[in-house]
Amino acid sequence: MVKRDGFAKLSNGFWRSTKVRKLRRERPTALGLYALAISFCSDRLNDGHITDDELYYQLGADDDDIDALLDVRMLEDDGESGYYIHDYLDHQTSREKALEKAEKHRRAQARYIAGQNDESLINQCPVNDVSTLNTQNTKNPRTSLLSNDKSERHPLPDENEIREWKPKPDHRQQAMELVDKGYPLIDVDNLAKEFRNSLLSKGIEHYGYRNLDAAFDTWILKRSESKRDQHQNQIFQDTAFEGRTWQEPEKEPEHKTTYGIGSKRVLNLLGLDVADPSDWRLLALRDLFNEGKSDEAAMEELRQMEEARKKTEVTA
User: Fold this and answer.
1) Does the residue 161 lie in any domain?
2) Is residue 258 part of a domain?
3) Which residues pair with 49 in a beta bridge?
4) In angstroms, rounded to a whole number, what is the distance separating the alpha carbons of residues 216 and 314?
5) Closest Cα partner for 222 from 275, 174, 180?
6) In this structure, are 36 and 80 located in the same domain?
7) Which of 191, 206, 239 is where one domain is finished?
8) Which of these, 92, 107, 200, 202, is most buried using a 10 Å CB contact count?
9) Residue 133 CA to chain centroid, in angstroms?
10) Residue 140: C-alpha distances to residues 127, 144, 151 (Å)
11) Helices 95-114 and 169-180 meet at what angle, rounded to 10?
12) pLDDT (0 to 100) of residue 135
């Protein structure tokens, strides 16, 4: 079963797209629908295909939002009863890859768990002389750490024990169980090398570890928590404003009308029926109207722009 707690992706350059800027100005609710659609498709692993019913009844879309996304080709009609998110698989994980990744994770976890019963691992464990076994040393070494009787504690490991120590299958299983709980995957072998080097460089007396296996359990948990916190902090930094001294521009009055190149006022003044994005006059009038210019003032400035362009073409 594929876990559904992953992440969809949004390009860092999303905000720079002309399509996005156009929707932000003319139909901002369509941008919200687009983001919801990406999240929905990623969660359902449907490779970017979404039906009419899912748009209307799952995401709460309306006809105007859908038409706006179709106009800028962020949605594409499938010719039947649904749509495709444009270039979805160029940025998101496909269903095939998600299932493949889940299967690899399942197999890896099975190998980690099965390793604790592998007879070949017996050679890695110290062998006790039968003559030295007694009631005291058959106690669980991890629970013995909690004993207040110093005579029952294990002595501090020497350098040879530290150098020869290796992580056990239980440690690998612990790392995989933490992954299932949402923690990042820990490279147990690399962490074990760091563990040994720290004990050798600072000295076992610095740490006071009497049981290396139990101590390494704690290292795994702390490293997992540290990596998780770093990942969450990075996400916060990436989404937060970088310059906290930046002053937000004054908000325009809510009653002010915002014009686009397809606005009736712009088209009527130029005598056009349909907006052509390549027509520079539409862009110029749109900006002049949004600056608060009257029809007469806007047309006068447009006339001056045309004259300036003609002079430039003549000199060229």
Assistant:
1) yes
2) no
3) 84
4) 79
5) 174
6) yes
7) 239
8) 92
9) 53
10) 16, 6, 15
11) 150
12) 40
Sign of the CA dihedral 25, 30, 31, 32? positive
Torsions phi, psi for 49 (to 5 deg): -100, 135
Residues 80 and 201 in one domain: no
Q: Note whether residue 188 is domain-resident.
A: yes
CATH of the domain at 64: 1.10.10
How many C-beta atoms lie closer than 10 Å to residue 145's C-beta? 15
Averaged over successive runs of 10 residues, the pLDDT of the chain (316 residues) comes to 69 87 92 93 92 91 92 90 90 88 82 58 40 41 44 74 92 87 87 93 87 92 87 62 53 65 85 83 86 89 85 71
The pTM of this model reads 0.38
User: In the structure encoding, which two tokens stand for residue 133, read together?
Assistant: 């076994």
Please say whether the beta carbons of 153 and 147 come within 8 A.
Answer: yes
What is the H or E stretch that residue 26 is in?
helix 18-26
Host domain of residue 83: 14-91
| Residue 26 lies inside a defined structural domain of this protein | yes
Q: How far is CA 306 from the centre of its chain?
A: 48
194 in the same domain as 171: yes
Amino acid letter at 199?
L
Structure-token match 């024990």, residue found: 161
Assign 213 to helix, strand or coil.
Answer: helix
CB 266 within 8 A of CB 298: no
